[in-house]
Amino acid sequence: MAEALWTLREVVKAAGGEIIGSPPHAFTGVSIDSRTVRPGEIFVAIRGDTHDGHDFVSAAHKAGAGLAVVSRQTPEMAAGGGLLVVDDPLKALERLGIAARARSQAQIVAVTGSVGKTGTKEALRLCLSASGETHASAASYNNHWGVPLSLARLSSTARFAVFEIGMNHAGEITPLVAMVRPHIAIITTIAPVHLGPLGSIEAIADAKAEIFTGLEPKGVAILNRDIGQFERLEAAAKAAGVKRIVTFGEHEAADARLRQAGVKEICTIVQARILGQDVTYRVGAPGRHIAVNSLAVLAAIKCAGGDLALGALKLRELEPPKGRGARFKLRTRDGDITVIDESYNANPVSMRAALALLGHSTPGPGGRRIAVMGDMLELGPESRRFHGDLAGAIDAAGVDVVYACGPDMKSLWDALRHDQRGYYATSSQDLADPLLDGIRAGDVIMVKGSLGSRMGLLIDALRRNFAEIEANAA
Hints:
By secondary structure, this protein is an alpha/beta fold. The chain is 34% helix and 23% strand. The longest helix has 16 residues, at 288-303.
């Protein structure tokens, strides 16, 4: 059996509630998903946007959950296994997370920003692990249930912990960072993401700056020196009582400064000066934006007391995650194609970065650079302008053909040269057949759009129609 994360006594003390049945005395983990719960874990039956966890308690027990945290019980639930009946399972999860944070001796890093949160969090997970036991949020668990769940999974023996904190409206970060109480807070960048709900880039910066309110005494704020909102963020940090501000970027005054970045097709070679120390390293993912965010990672490692040299060495193992730049090769009837999967989400900054990444890719003989682009959502009244403005980035990246879908992407389609137009459709589903018909051997195809644009359907269509080549064979 895996090492215990929580004892039953600790769970009841933290979460409250009444025990029903005879649950085991210790638990190995915490889950809110009956499909992935493991034997010996705690299942918390929270109510989501579409499902109520109480409907899956029996399934969780059958999967081996040692305890289900519920707000109501039925004979069927009680017969399946141990229950902890509480007032509100989500509140109980929050209390469990707060208890995990209270017992932890780890150096805690919190990451937010308009773009690059998950990639930076994963890089920190990888690099800090070279210096000691490291815990980090799973996937993009950065909201009102993801943060307390990630906290509740924090082992008391971890030396470092990294938490991603997201938002789509003002006031959302404040209660989350109050639970995390980080020693180090990173803001990757400020961009027009959730511009519709928030109204202005300044409002976005103010919402992200809420992360400073939860910093521990003597905590460190790590800020991007290159962005237009730097001074606003710096002022917000000082107003929150932050005494130490560390900056990163290409700016000559940055504490963690990028001196040179050589972007290759599958990696980036970086020369930097990190808090007075010169470092040259390889990042196992391509992109200048990746290089810039790696500066924040290394600065955080040094501030947290980790080994900078070992952390920099670990960056060569960094791989772009699914939907965020992951690459794979497919075999068509006439030859191979390369696909860059950026389908998870999109905004003007990340779309430009993805196009630049496509520009660094070299097509095979007879192949082309193809951008498959869906709408970027939540951009407010200026959305169509943001889409149309991407035409310049497409030219700069040397993109040969564009496939576009969505009402706002029509603005980009209209701005393209006729020789760049592959096909336009109102939805990603309607774009699938024209894209498949238009592919030829040697093409490099980048697929990107907001999650609501469902660009993942096109990735699935490519995989269904062409055989994937094993990475070692490629």
